[in-house]
Amino acid sequence: MIKVGIVGGTGYTGVELLRLLARHSGVKLQAVTSRKEAGMKVAEMYPSLRGWVDLAFSTPEDARLTECDVVFFATPNGIAMQQTGELLDAGVKVIDLAADYRIKDLSEWSKWYGMQHASPDLVEEAVYGLPEINRAAIRDARLIANPGCYPTAVQLGFLPLIEAGVIDAGSLIADCKSGVSGAGRKAEVGALFAEAGDNFKAYGVAGHRHLPEIRQGLTRIAGVDVGLTFVPHLTPLIRGIHATLYAKITQDVDLQALFEQRYLGEQFVDVLPAGSHPETRSVRGANVCRIAVHRPQGGDTVVILSVIDNLVKGAAGQAVQNMNILFDLPEGTGLDIVPLLP
Question: Residue 198's beta-bridge partner residues?
Fold first, then answer.
């Protein structure tokens, strides 16, 4: 059994990790940390886990994390980079669900996250945990940078087109919408029901911290710098991301066949039949990205529709998928979940 620790188990990503790992046949939950809630039973905070998780929250010092096989960081940005080195030195593998190790350019990272990096020597080593691109590297990794939610939906949508070189990579557009859980479990006016309900708004148009992550990933695939306009929106949903992606076609190809071939055998990417319009509710609670590709009026613009659950394939589910690869388990172990409807 894989001995698992979770640092930061009180947020939405943390409880989603607990939900998935509690039914995972190959793991044993060793510790779940929270300084503020130390001593409280996990199931007391999250009654949905009654009968599934019998642990109490502990402080990181009392959790004996160095005795784990893998530790997940479900913490705010800037926490994992303080503790990762010690864990790696003890032979523990680390999967960071925050952004501490996603961006290779440290000056770019500091610009967007407003702090100096505490373990810059580990940034280059970290493997970006998007399995559909980096599966081989993930298998041999000590440290995995779990992708962000928007970057997952956007990169999976553009990936087949950029790999095939059939679009203009200099003028990409990502028009994305997310539910309020993407903002985390914290008291914030904009996430209040009276503010977010019955409302729809764009934010971060001048620049969003996921922009450099997406651009880095797409540039690596393209082999040249990509031009990307990324505009996120907040919707009155709890879960879900819908990414509508636009690009100019430079070669006349069968787009449907291109996507179907690229994702053939990928358990967690579902290319829908031609003409489909994926809905966020079709992935709610599941570790799957559903994609549809369109060419309106047969013109020179391709439109990709990509939907994920931001807490699962966009966070905790993808982290468990990475863990499965890391420990040579079947990739879908613990992730064979039917989406919730309605």
Answer: none
Sheet hosting strand 201-202, strand order edge to edge? 201-202, 228-234, 172-178, 241-248, 301-308, 289-294, 269-271
> What digits encode the pLDDT tens for the residues 188-208?
787 777 888 889 999 999 999
Instruction: Give the three-class secondary structure for 245.
Output: strand
Annotated catalytic sites, by residue? 149
Q: Is the pLDDT of residue 116 over 80?
A: yes
| Architecture (CATH level 2) of domain 2-125 | 3-Layer(aba) Sandwich (3.40)
Concatenated DSSP letters of 80-98: HHHHHHHHHHTT-EEEE-S
Q: Where are the domains of the chain?
A: 2-125, 150-310
Q: Residue 13 has what pLDDT?
A: 95
pTM > 0.85: yes or no: yes
Are the CB atoms for 218 and 155 separated by under 8 Å?
yes
Identify the pLDDT of residue 77. Answer: 95
Angle in degrees, 0-180, between the axes of helices 317-326 and 131-139, rounded to the nearest 10: 40
Domain 150-310 top-level CATH class? alpha beta
